[in-house]
Every structure is written in C-alpha cells, then in structure tokens.
Amino acid sequence: MTPWLGLVVLLGSWSLGHWGAEACTCSPSHPQDAFCNSDIVIRAKVVGKKLVKEGPFGTLVYTIKQMKMYRGFTKMPHVQYIHTEASESLCGLKLEVNKYQYLLTGRVYDGKMYTGLCNFVERWDQLTLSQRKGLNYRYHLGCNCKIKSCYYLPCFVTSKNECLWTDMLSNFGYPGYQSKHYACIRQKGGYCSWYRGWAPRTKASSMPQTP
C-alpha cells in the first residue's frame, strides 16, 4: 500500500464538495478531530506545482509558502512541499496557485507531508472566527475528548469525555453549526462539552447532548 493510499484509509475527514470525485469517499470529521488526528496543521499559500511519476497516476507536488504552523512542530517544523495524488478518484487535492491562503492538514510519511480530499483543507478566508480560534488553542485543549457522530436519532453520549456531534442530521455530513462554531473541551469535573467561547470556559453553555 502506498503512503497516500494508506492515508486515505486511515484518515477520514471532510471531502471538499466542490473538489470531490465520485470514487473518493471520505468519512465526515469535525475540524477538531481533523486537527487532533493530523501530523501537520498549517496555514500556507501555494506558489507552485509539478507532476512527478510516483504512484499509479502520478503525484502532484505543491510548493508552498508556510504562513503559520498550528501542529507538527516536532515532526516537520517547516513545510515547503505537500504531496497529493494527481487523480481526484484517489482523493487527490486540487489547489489554486498564487491565489488563496489555505488551512492544510495532513500526515507525514518518509519526511514528506501528504494530504488530500479526505483531510480537512479549506481556504483561510472561508473559516469562521471560531474555527480560527480553535486552531490557535481550543482544538488542542480538546484532543483528549471524543466527538461522537450522530447519523440518525436517537443519539446519546455514553461517557463523560464525549460530545455529541449532530451536524450530519441536518447537513448530510457537511460543515454545520457545531463544526463552524464549537469546540469540544474538557470542563471542571472531567466532563467534555461543547464550548463556543462567549463566556469563560467554566460558564460555557453546552450544546444539547441528547435530541
């Protein structure tokens, strides 16, 4: 199994709908889970790309200008290139050159960063203020919590470290209100609950845990 094909199997996150391909299927993931389960999380601008003969359809290698790193300091403190499958059917990611800044998540294999449609990748200007704050510190605080997906009713949490994620009920797995505005953070007493950030953490209002 190639590093990227292994990545597709192991790392489920959002497929970017406007970039997706029929054969690429990804499990939905809250941005906090994508953050906590990634080796690398950075904000960067793509400044170049080239196709190399690696894998069945080749590999796209993007040259990037790293603006900020949020996760991955010990694995790869500075990222200059990111690798992705050239074929969208294998979850290859298409990025614009010299146009946007992106939030990029990915894994490290053999000293290289790999990413794709099954990673959380978004234009920086499309992220909400809460998501940007999550990247800076809130998501990190919740990496010991578990975000439990709810696909159909009824849904319940089964332990104190779980937050119930219900975006799939109303948004079919695409980013919804909890994804855009909430982080799952451990509160006093050891319980994890949804936190938006309008009040001090100990006074935060929790999202409903049961429908």
TrEMBL record:
Residues 24-143 form the NTR domain. This is Metalloproteinase inhibitor 3. The keyword Cell division does not apply. GO terms for biological process: negative regulation of proteolysis. Zn(2+) binds at C24. Keywords: Disulfide bond, Extracellular matrix, Metal-binding, Metalloenzyme inhibitor, Metalloprotease inhibitor, Protease inhibitor, Secreted, Signal, Zinc. GO terms for cellular component: secretory granule lumen. It is found in: Secreted, Extracellular space, Extracellular matrix. PROSITE patterns: NTR, TIMP. It comes from the Eukaryota. Disulfide bonds join C24-C91, C26-C118, C36-C143, C145-C192, C150-C155, C163-C184. Belongs to the protease inhibitor I35 (TIMP) family. Interacts with EFEMP1. Interacts with KDR. Its main location: secreted. Pfam families: TIMP (PF00965). Residues 1-20 form the signal peptide. InterPro entries: Netrin_domain, TIMP, TIMP-like_OB-fold, TIMP_C, TIMP_CS. One of its GO terms (molecular function) is peptidase inhibitor activity.
